[in-house]
Amino acid sequence: MSTTSPPPLWAAVHLPQLALDAVLRQHPEPAAPLALLSGPAQRRVVLDANPAARALGLQRGQSVAAAQALCAALRTQEHRPQDSARLVELLAAWAYRYSSMVCLPQANCVVLEVGRSFGLFGQWPGFERRLRADLTALGVAHRIAAAPTVSGACVLACHRDGLAVDRLDPLRHALDPLPVSALALSDREADSLHGMGLRSLRQLFALPRSGLARRFGAGLLAQIDRLLGHAPDPQDLYRPPERFEARVEFSYEVEHFSPLLFPLRRLCSDLAEFLTARDGGVQRFELALEHEGLPASRIEIGLLAPERESARLFELARGRLERLPLPKAAVALRLLAAELPPFIPARRDLFEAGAGQTEPWAALRERLRARLGEDALHQLVLTGDPRPERAQQRVAERCARDPAQRPVPRPPWLLSEARPLREAVAAVLAGPERIEAGWWDGADQRRDYYLIETRSGQRAWAFRPAGDPATLQGWMLRGWFA
Fold first, then answer.
1. CA–CA distance, 266 with 83 (Å, rounded to integer)
2. Is residue 171 part of a domain?
3. Residues forming a β-bridge with 424
4. What are the tens digits of pLDDT across the range 366-378?
5. pTM, rounded to two decimals
6. pLDDT of residue 373
7. The dihedral of CA 142, 145, 148, 151: what is its sign?
8. Domain assignment of residue 431, given as a range
C-alpha cells in the first residue's frame, strides 16, 4: 500500500510597508507622525509615512520641506535597506517555527508551505488567524493568501488579501481579474502589453502562446507557467543562521538608561522569536552600546541554563544594563548571541498548584544575579572541617552531590562568634556531640555541643568544654534553630 503526500499549499505573507515597519517597530512612539526619507542629499523625498502623518496630508514623493510645512512636529527617519533586510530575515525565522519549507521569492514576501503543518496547527482558517496574530504582535503590517504555487500565493497576497485556493483550477479563476501589473514585468513589457489593450490577466492568459513567445520571448511564458503550476518553480529554502545579531540605531543621542528600555525589549523579543523558530535557547549573549568616537560599552550576560522566554531575557538584560555607566551618549544598541545550545523545557507536575504565583528557583536566581551582580548571590557548602566557624564556605553554585554534606543537624542561624547564653536553659534535648579539631593550624578546639531548649521555648545549639557536665548554666551559644 503506497501513501502519497498531500499536494503542497503555500502561504504567502506580503509586507506592504516593509521599510516603514522596520523603523516603526523600533520607535518608542509609533503613533506619532513619522516619515521615512530617501533620495539624494540635494532632493530628499518622503518614501513612506505612518497613518498619523498620512492623515495630515503627507504623501509618497513629497519633498521634505512640503512635508514639514504640513506637520511641524513631524519626525523623520532615513531609509536604510539593511533594516528591511534584517526584518525579512527575522520574519523568515518566525515562519520557520511553522514549517521547515520557507522561502523568500521577493524582497517583501515570505512564503511557507503550510499543507504539511495542518496536523500540528489545525486547518487553514485557524492557522491563518494564528499567523496574523503573531505578525500583529511583531508590529508588521501584512497581507496573507494561500495557493498551490509559490508565485500564485505571492500574487494573491499582494492583491487579494485573505484568499485561499488549494487547487490549480480555482487558482486560474482567482487570478483572472487581477491586473497585468501583478506580474513581474520589465518596463518594456508593461508598456507593450498596455499598448495592446491588455488590462487583466484573463486577457493575457487567452492570447496564443506562440504569439507571446515571438513578441516577448520565453521569459514571460515561463513566468505564466510557474504562476499557474504548469512548470516547476524551484526555490532556495531558508535555513536559520547559527547566531543572532540585531542592532537598533537611535535617532538622537541617548544619555540615560530609560530611553534604552524600548529598544532593549524589542531586541529581546526578536531574539526569543528567533530561538523559538530554531527550537533552541541562549546561554550567553552580549549587549553593546555604541558611542561616537569611543569604543562600544559591552556587557556579557551569562545564564546558568539555556533560556528563550522574552520577558526573562529582558529582565536579565535590563538588570545588567541599568548598572552600566555610560562614558558618552549612546548612538546605537546591538545584541549578539553566538552560543545557541538546545533548549530543554523544565519538567513540571501535571497538576502543579499555584503556577501563576510561583517562580522556579533557577529563574529567581538569574534575576537576582542580574540585579545585584555576579558576586552578590552565593550558596553555602560544607568544607569537611568539623569546627562550626570553618565548616562551610561560599560558592557561586553548589554541586548536585556535595561529598562534604553530612546528615548532622546544624542550626540555620549560625552566629559568627560564640557568646555566652544569657537566657536560662530549660532542658537538654540532645548531645553531647564532641568536636576535637584544629591541631593542624594552631586553633585547637575541644568542645561538647548540645541541642538545648530555653525557658522561652527557643531551641539553640550551645557548647561546653569537653568533659564538662551539662548543667543549666555556663553555656556558650553557637546558633539558633528555627
1. 14
2. yes
3. none
4. 666 656 666 666 6
5. 0.69
6. 62
7. negative
8. 411-480
